[in-house]
Amino acid sequence: MALDLPAAQVAATVVLNLSMAALTGASLADRWLHASSSHWAMRNRVSLRRVGLVSVTTALLTYMAALWLEAASMAEVALSQAAPAIDAVLTATHYGFSWKIGLVALAVVTVVTTLRWSPQRGPVADLVRLAAIGAFMYTRSMVSHAGAGGDISWAMAADWIHLVLISVWVGDVLVAGFVTLRHLPGATGQDGPERAQYTQALSNSATIALAGIAITGLISAWRGLGSLENITGNPYATVLLLKLALVAIAAALGGLNRFVVMPRLLAGLRAPGAPSSKQEQRFVFILQVESLVLAGALVFAAVLSSTSPPGAG
């Protein structure tokens, strides 16, 4: 049975985007916990380093696989026969040019994530890692619909910012829901205030990211659709609307956490004498559901990236 190359490319894009989101979320969480000294914070910094290593390794392997899939697609051959075409893709195509830049960026992220840094050099390492992640995201925009007008344009800038902010939002809730805030004990001693500070930073980051996503998403959607007449009746619009529906659900879940659950949670965390385990469990559960919804949105985003927009012409 022959491999469905378009489906495989979409799957690779989903895995790559999820890996980069987890890496971004782990990097931000580690930065927020950098000055914390509680047992909870120190334990999570170890976990976050593991998440970073797994994420960047997965991203590298998927990135290599994506090149192989692209070579097979361009040469119109079976995957097993694509090896000879890889050199041509790397040396004679725009995809290959952007892929090589992305590989360098991923290599930098890998080195920074793998090495153990002293507390004094930690901020510099974090900055380098986040900058390299941003550079990698730019190479993804270079091979997107936005890159059709050149590697430097307003469309490219909007698409790049959109990708970065999506990684921030997805990474924030994914890491918090399944790593840092999972299985929390009752707030005691120094843990409570530091967890409250982390939760506030998480919420602020996700809120800012969502606001930026809304703006850049409108720009990207308008560029792709071309006119209001194209909002229905074509595959691109259908996938876009499905993606937007999931994003809206995720945003509603985030709003529920921020405006309903979080105020009581923070009050409990800042007052160790008043345990807030129920609020913590509710907060984490909503984060986990939000993560799954966003993962679904990433699937539709990957399909969207391989679907020709009606406004392309």
TrEMBL record:
<feature type="transmembrane region" description="Helical">
    <location>
        <begin position="97"/>
        <end position="115"/>
    </location>
</feature>
<feature type="transmembrane region" description="Helical">
    <location>
        <begin position="50"/>
        <end position="69"/>
    </location>
</feature>
<keyword id="KW-1133">Transmembrane helix</keyword>
<protein>
    <submittedName>
        <fullName>Copper resistance protein CopD</fullName>
    </submittedName>
</protein>
<dbReference type="GO" id="GO:0006825">
    <property type="term" value="P:copper ion transport"/>
</dbReference>
<dbReference type="InterPro" id="IPR032694">
    <property type="entry name" value="CopC/D"/>
</dbReference>
<feature type="transmembrane region" description="Helical">
    <location>
        <begin position="236"/>
        <end position="261"/>
    </location>
</feature>
<feature type="domain" description="Copper resistance protein D">
    <location>
        <begin position="199"/>
        <end position="304"/>
    </location>
</feature>
<feature type="transmembrane region" description="Helical">
    <location>
        <begin position="127"/>
        <end position="148"/>
    </location>
</feature>
<dbReference type="GO" id="GO:0005886">
    <property type="term" value="C:plasma membrane"/>
</dbReference>
<keyword id="KW-0472">Membrane</keyword>
<keyword id="KW-0812">Transmembrane</keyword>
<dbReference type="Pfam" id="PF05425">
    <property type="entry name" value="CopD"/>
</dbReference>
<feature type="transmembrane region" description="Helical">
    <location>
        <begin position="282"/>
        <end position="304"/>
    </location>
</feature>
<keyword id="KW-1003">Cell membrane</keyword>
<feature type="transmembrane region" description="Helical">
    <location>
        <begin position="202"/>
        <end position="224"/>
    </location>
</feature>
<feature type="transmembrane region" description="Helical">
    <location>
        <begin position="160"/>
        <end position="181"/>
    </location>
</feature>
<feature type="transmembrane region" description="Helical">
    <location>
        <begin position="6"/>
        <end position="29"/>
    </location>
</feature>
<dbReference type="InterPro" id="IPR008457">
    <property type="entry name" value="Cu-R_CopD_dom"/>
</dbReference>
